[in-house]
Write a structure and sequence with these properties.
Length: 135
């Protein structure tokens, strides 16, 4: 019996190696769970900050600079759109939830929405009344 246990230990590394492998998997999983929890609370805090910035009354003066901290603040602008300088980015993908996950229409679109590209994003520059040419 002692010979068979020694042979098994030589072949597979024994119970200590098995414990080390499964122990490292448990430690790794625990570490990833801690990281996900930390990221969750970071994102909740970011959403609170964004909601506070969006709740501020829209300002028509003091336009933001490129290094501004208030990138989610609302602004009231007056001007005309320059349609001749439009940019079309695309084609876009289907909207979220347009693809059926299961059932007879799985892999196809639902609600009359096509699973193929859905048009383009259109970016139109605005020329402000106070300034000339804003790209």
């Amino acid at each position: 019996m002692a010979e068979s246990a020694a042979a098994a230990a030589a072949r597979g590394g024994g119970p200590k190696a098995t414990m080390a492998v499964f122990g490292s998997l448990c430690v790794g999983t625990f570490g990833l769970g801690c990281w996900q929890t930390s990221r969750y609370f970071d994102k909740v805090e970011m959403m609170k900050v964004r909601e506070e910035e969006l709740a501020i009354v829209a300002s028509s003066s003091d336009l933001p600079s490129s290094s501004s901290d208030s990138c989610f603040r609302r602004y009231e602008l007056r001007g005309t759109f320059r349609h001749e300088d439009e940019i079309w980015l695309g084609p876009r993908g289907p909207p979220p939830g347009a693809m059926a996950a299961d059932g007879p229409n799985s892999g196809r679109s639902s609600g009359g929405m096509s699973s193929s590209p859905q048009g383009y994003f259109v970016i139109t520059p605005l020329e402000l009344e106070q300034q000339k040419r804003v790209a």
